[in-house]
Design brief:
InterPro entries: Acyl-CoA_DS, FA_desaturase_dom. By secondary structure, the protein is an all-alpha fold. It has helices at about 45-70, 70-100, 105-120, 125-135, 150-155, 165-170, 175-180, 185-190, 190-210, 215-240, 260-265, 270-275, 290-300, 315-325, 340-345, and strands spanning about 105, 305. The radius of gyration is 22 Å and the shape is globular. Bound molecules: zinc ion (2 copies).
């Protein structure tokens, strides 16, 4: 598909919205009270509350079983499924489909779809719509998990209440035609309510029972624990990675760099970078904790992942200087952020005059 011309999206208001390279910074002050969420009454969806309470209770019991009766193979298997499902979200729904930051051949797409269904965070089409709206209208009422409503809302509260009308309105305007054009995604979307229970709950429970004679209770509860842990890892990107950390690339937005989130969400916690350059398949600079990147690069080696889009070092440096909060680490000798004092006081052995 030929690249589509960049849609000129009216920015919510400079400088709180995502800045593009051509935008002028109108002030150096970071506005604190722009786009405060409106005070609409929260319409709780009690069915979801009950489902999540039950799932969390079973997950806690699964954790208990890991220590008292589950076989160690079941626990290792649970950790493996956690990583697989996380990659279905990070490498699949997020970097491949929501952001189109790289391309994949069909065998990789099938693997990613299985992993993404294993993660059960709705179909890829639904996940990507929410995520594109999140990026385009971040931290306004149109953002499905607006972090301005607090940690709990952006973490999981947004799934326990009805969507804000603005989310629905703006969501309709987001182009999803590229994803609807993919037969595999249409198939997953159409049969999600059949595929999801099989891939996310039935098979992961049956496999340990058949292969190493695990009990139903252990296999079932440890799998629910795996599912809930992966959900929280993803949710941390929307909550913690919008709150606690540095902003080396753009201090005018709330997403931050958070190492701990990157560890649990296999590379997705470098969120200030990601919101600044959402088309970069690395979702971070090189050299960060980023298991998703390692896996995508492995697939790239066999040709299944290709057209990997990234941002040049020059562009990053330009952006760090222009809008960063000054926390960007220096890359070494001669970096523009190296202080004059450090530069002048360095001891240089075997120095030759050139
Ligand atoms: Zn975000
Ligand atoms: Zn994203």
């Amino acid at each position: 598909m030929p690249p589509r011309p960049r849609e000129k999206q009216p920015l919510p208001s400079l400088p709180t919205g995502p800045l593009n390279e051509c935008d002028d910074i109108v002030t150096d002050k970071i506005p604190q009270d722009t786009y405060e969420p409106d005070d609409r009454p929260i319409d709780i969806v009690w069915r979801n509350v009950v489902v999540f309470v039950i799932l969390h209770s079973v997950a806690l019991y699964g954790l208990y079983l890991c220590f008292i009766s589950a076989m160690w193979t079941t626990t290792i298997y649970g950790i493996l499924l956690y990583q697989m499902s996380a990659f279905g979200i990070t490498g699949g729904a997020h970097r491949l489909w929501a952001h189109r930051s790289y391309k994949a051949k069909w065998p990789l797409k099938v693997i990613l779809l299985i992993c993404q269904t294993l993660a059960h965070q709705n179909s890829v089409i639904e996940w990507s719509r929410d995520h594109r709206v999140h990026h385009k209208f971040q931290e306004t009422d149109a953002d499905p998990h607006n972090a301005k409503r607090g940690f709990f809302f952006s973490h999981m509260g947004w799934l326990l209440c009805k969507k804000h009308q603005e989310v629905k309105n703006k969501g309709k305007g987001v182009d999803m035609s590229d994803l609807y054009a993919e037969p595999l995604l249409r198939l997953q979307h159409k049969y999600f309510l059949v595929l999801m229970p099989i891939v996310c709950f039935v098979l992961p429970t049956i496999i340990p029972m058949l292969l190493w004679n695990e009990t139903f209770m252990n296999a079932y509860c440890v799998n629910i624990l795996r599912y809930i842990c992966a959900l929280h890892a993803t949710w941390l990107v929307n909550s913690a990675a919008h709150m606690w950390g540095s902003k080396p690339y753009d201090k005018f937005i709330n997403p931050v760099e958070n190492r701990l989130v990157s560890f649990f969400a296999i590379g997705e916690g470098w969120h200030n970078y990601h919101h600044t350059f959402p088309w970069d398949y690395k979702a971070a600079e090189f050299g960060r904790i980023n298991l998703s990147l390692t896996i995508i690069n492995l697939f790239a080696k066999i040709g299944w992942a290709y057209d990997l889009k990234t941002v040049s070092k020059e562009m990053i440096e330009k952006r760090v200087t222009r809008t960063g909060d000054g926390s960007h680490e220096i890359w070494g000798w001669g970096d523009k952020d190296q202080t004059k004092e450090n530069y002048e006081s360095a001891v240089i052995y075997n120095k030759k005059d050139e």
